[in-house]
Design brief:
Layout (H helix, E strand, L loop, with lengths): L18 E2 L11 H8 L12 H11 L6 E4 L1 H11 L7 E4 L4 H9 L4 E4 L2 H8 L4 E5 L11 H14 L2 E5 L17 E4 L13 E4 L5 H4 L9 H10 L2 H26 L5 E3 L4 E5 L3 H9 L3 E2 L1 E2 L8 E5 L3 H13 L8
Parallel strand pairs: 1-11, 3-4, 3-5, 5-6, 6-7
Antiparallel strand pairs: 2-8, 7-8, 9-10, 10-13, 12-13
Helix pairs in contact: 1-8, 3-4, 9-11
Length: 335
C-alpha cells in the first residue's frame, strides 16, 4: 500500500520553514475579503446538507444551471469521488508528469490507470477510458495545452462518452487565457488563488446536470467555513483582489528565473506562477535546503528526480534561495 500514500510538497513534519517555495498558493498571502468572511461565520450550526444557495451562487458566477454544480472538500476529495462514481468507474487516463492525486485515486478505487507520456498517446488512449484528467496549467510543469489539442480531446471524448476533467486549480494565477471546450468538466480549487489552502473547499462545473454525482459525497461535505470561503471568493471584490495580486506574482516569477539563471541551472517555466529547476539530485538538494529553513518541491514523485518545483515568492525569499543554492554548489544534470 506504500504507493497509495499521498505525496505533497507544501507540508512536512518539521517546523514551518522561513521561506516556502513548495506551495503554489498565492505568495502574497490570504485574501482580506475571504478572511473577513471566515471570521463572520457562526460554526454552531450545520450547513445546508443540499447546499442550495451555495450551488446557486456558483452557478450564477459561471452562468450555468445550479444542477450543473457540485461542491466538495477541495479538489482532492472531488477527484476521489469521481473515481468512485458509478458512471465514471473504468480506466482512468492522465498525461504525465502531473498532479499525483489522479493516479492515487484511481489506484484507491482499484481502477486501471493509463499514464500517457505525450499528447498523441493521450489521444490514442482516450476512446478506451471512462475518465480523463488534464491539469491546466499543468502541475508541476506549468504547461498550458494548446487549443488544437484540447479541441481534439473534446471531439474524441464526446464520441466515446469519456468524462474529461479540466483541473483549473491555478488558472486564476496564470498569465494567459485558457479556453476550455464546453464539453469538459471544470474543477476549481480557489483556495490557492486566495491564499487560504487550509480551507478545504472546491467545486465542479459540468456541461450537464450532476445531481447523481452530488449524492456520492458524505453528508455536509463542505463546512460552514468552506461555504463562506466559496461565496466570498466569487464576489466581485474577491475576484478583483486576485487580479490585483497577479502582476506582482508574475514579476516575482520573472525575477526568480533571472536569479536562477545566474547559477547556470536549467529551468522550465510556463505562464503559471511556478516552474521547474534542474538541480541534479532533487532529493538531496531538497533536504539540504530544508536544513536551511527553505522548502522546495522535490519532483521525484512526479518522475522527475533531477528537478525541483519553485513558486513565485518575494525578493527576500528569492535572494535567500539563490544564496543557499550557490553555497551548496548545486549543479544540474542532463536529464
Amino acid at each position: 500500500m506504500d504507493n497509495l500514500q499521498p505525496v505533497h510538497g507544501s507540508t512536512d513534519a518539521g517546523a514551518s520553514p522561513q521561506f516556502d517555495f513548495s506551495s503554489n498558493a498565492n505568495a502574497i498571502g490570504a485574501s482580506p475579503i475571504v478572511v473577513r468572511a471566515l471570521r463572520a461565520v457562526d460554526p454552531t450550526h450545520y450547513p445546508d446538507p443540499f447546499y442550495v444557495q451555495l450551488h446557486q451562487s456558483i452557478a450564477d458566477f459561471h452562468q450555468v444551471n445550479s444542477d450543473q454544480v457540485a461542491v466538495g472538500a477541495g479538489a482532492s476529495e472531488l477527484i476521489v469521488r469521481l473515481t468512485r462514481w458509478e458512471r465514471s468507474r473504468g480506466p482512468v487516463l492522465t498525461l504525465t508528469p502531473t498532479f499525483s492525486e489522479y493516479a492515487r485515486s484511481a489506484r484507491l478505487a482499484s481502477l486501471t490507470l493509463r499514464e500517457a507520456k505525450s499528447q498523441d498517446e493521450f489521444l490514442s488512449h482516450l476512446r478506451s477510458v471512462r475518465l480523463a484528467f488534464l491539469c491546466l496549467p499543468n502541475n508541476p510543469t506549468g504547461v498550458i495545452y494548446d487549443a488544437d489539442f484540447l479541441n481534439q480531446v473534446a471531439e474524441t471524448a464526446q464520441k466515446s462518452g469519456t468524462i474529461v476533467v479540466a483541473d483549473l486549480a491555478y488558472q486564476a494565477l496564470t498569465a494567459a487565457e485558457i479556453v476550455i471546450p464546453p464539453s469538459f468538466w471544470r474543477m476549481y480549487a480557489p483556495n490557492k488563488a486566495h491564499g487560504v489552502t487550509g480551507i478545504r473547499a472546491g467545486y465542479l462545473v459540468a456541461p450537464e446536470g450532476i445531481g447523481a454525482f452530488r449524492n456520492v459525497a458524505p453528508s455536509w461535505i463542505v463546512s460552514v467555513h468552506g461555504e463562506a470561503f466559496l461565496r466570498s471568493a466569487l464576489t466581485p471584490k474577491g475576484q478583483a483582489w486576485v487580479r490585483k495580486c497577479c502582476p506582482t506574482l508574475w514579476a516575482w516569477r520573472d525575477r526568480l528565473q533571472t536569479q536562477i539563471a545566474t547559477l547556470g541551472l536549467r529551468q522550465s517555466w510556463g505562464q503559471a506562477n511556478f516552474g521547474l529547476v534542474n538541480v541534479g539530485n532533487a532529493a538531496e538538494v531538497t533536504q539540504a535546503l530544508r536544513s536551511r529553513s527553505i522548502r522546495v518541491r522535490d519532483c521525484t514523485s512526479f518522475g522527475l528526480p533531477s528537478w525541483v518545483r519553485l513558486s513565485a515568492q518575494n525578493e527576500v525569499a528569492q535572494d535567500a534561495l539563490v544564496q543557499a543554492l550557490a553555497e551548496l554548489d548545486v549543479v544540474g544534470d542532463g536529464d
